[in-house]
Amino acid sequence: MKQPQSERPTVPATERTSTLQLGNYNTLRITRFTDHGAYLDSGEVGEILMPKAYVLPEMKPGDEVRVFVYLDQEERLVGTTETPLARVGEFAYLRVAWVNEYGAFLDWGLMKDLFVPFREQKRRMEKDRSYIVYIYIDEETSRIVASAKVDRFIQPTPYGRYHRGEEVDILIQQKTPLGFKVIVDNAWPGLIYDNQIYEDHRTGERLRASIVTFRPDGKLDLSLQRIGKGRFRDFAEILEERIKEAGGEIPFTDRSDSEDIMREFGVSKKTFKRAVGTLYRSRRIELLPESIRLIDK
């Protein structure tokens, strides 16, 4: 049933974010309960509703709750304990739930779907297909919307922001002739070259990667393998386990074919040789003409 205007006022667009973080999590205090749910104190904006479906039996006035604040079907502020797939200011790979004459609507894990107007689509979005989008607050309407024209929201990486070998979170944006364009730490442009990719990956996949190079144009070159000594130590431990699993000896040496090494272990020959060297120097293996054998201790 529609709630009376006096019970739950619609907040003017210019006031919606004066004290709240719209499209983000907020910790708010419960002021009272009604048949519709719990009302939360949001400061200058006034009270907002947390619908009854999210009210727990143990909740009472004065309790603080962490809610995600967005706009309901009637453009009124509400708080929910549901977890969205992304927040304002983030990039995400989301599925189109439905389309109409105004645009597309994405499933982002909340009751109300996320709107993508036609002007923010690179090409007409199709139902049940997924797209990389950026979520933001439209300045004209103060509504939460998404854009598939994500490149304009990706800024050049500041000089000195990362160091070589630093691990980062990435979102695979798209396949290119050079490799995969990625979004680094939800903000910066990056590229993983084809010769650094040893497994099948897809658009929308979230991975960890290592910084290889900072380029003058603000883009980052990355690797899906760790860079530096830590990387070789990590694979040395994996290699030792693989030798144990094989009965203590494997038919590989540091002269083995690089393609055979990649097919068997999923790493480059350089990484394999460095790991073999680490194990040899620590006297955990012996190198035979046609194999590597663990040393019993």
From TrEMBL:
It comes from Alloprevotella rava. Belongs to the CvfB family. This is GntR family transcriptional regulator. Residues 22-81 form the Conserved virulence factor B first S1 domain. InterPro entries: CvfB_fam, CvfB_S1_st, CvfB_WH, NA-bd_OB-fold, WH-like_DNA-bd_sf. Residues 239-294 form the Conserved virulence factor B-like winged helix domain. Transmembrane segments: none annotated.
